[in-house]
Amino acid sequence: MNNLALVINLGSSSLKAALVDPTGAKVWRGGRSLQADETLYAVLNSWLAPELEPYRSAITLVGHRVVHGGERFTAPTLITAEVETALQELVPLARLHNPPALKGLAWAQRWAPDLPQWACFDTAFHSTLPAAASTYALPLELRERGFRRFGFHGINHQHVAETVAAQWRKQGRDPKQLRLISAHLGAGASLAAIKGGVCIDTTMGYTPLEGLVMATRSGNVDPGLLLELLREGMGEAELADLLQHQAGLKGLSGLSGDMREIREQAATGHQGAQLALDVFRHRLIQMIGSMAASLRGVDVLALTGGIGEHDQALRAELADALNWLPNLEIVSVPADEEGMIARIYIQISRSLYQNRGRN
User: Residue 2: its pLDDT value, please?
Assistant: First the structure.
């Protein structure tokens, strides 16, 4: 067994990894949540390193998921010292997610210093957004500083797009004509409007805070409300904690950000849980409508992520609420960021091999 790609996907409180062979098959896959008393490095050393040891000699490259690539990184990128410095500079754009990725990169460089390390960016799939979709209505001096809409969850949105396109090919339909809304619904949530495999609109923006109601993130909030909180004396750190960790389903329900618990409590008559469901569903339906408008119609709504894949009640609710969209097909696509990253790096490896052969 040779030429395995190691994919490392680190979140703010979770670790997922996979080993993929040149055919795209997963040889090994695992994941762990980080406990409050555990450090990322400790888990990487005590859990991941022993798991990988039997395959170590067969691993030829390491791929890392990095949430935010800014305007510079719009394609998979080989990590160099210069690139690593540039990634450090992007941390303020994704304070929850980019730091763990960089820690994972540092760990992998020590664990396998001779292997090439690559970064794959969640924002890259959305680099095709037209200016009308990526531009905020701000003065030029701010736009020139990079204040624009980037979009996130791009690796999984790309996976969904490729999966649904493959299904269309099997049915004898032309994927270039496919108008797809990819709905990544989990602790984080976003929609992507994808036309012929190209992303033309999305719900997240400059940061992963914009858009849908999420587990503990607010999604869209009137900027005037935030200004009022600042005028009343709320500090930057307190406001950031409110929007990132105390809002969303958790803030609405007064319980938690777990959709399963919220559904269970709503069924018992808990008013906060019912309100959380209603607001989540209203915002989701509203933004699906906006994505359909951007696409000038929609053929497939693909549900992915923990909620999207497993909440059958939501799927039924969406089917009922969206029956005004003609011929809409609603499908479920299991999320697979690690598999998508591996497929990207397999393509890169083949390209590099072919180029060496020509030279």
Answer: 75
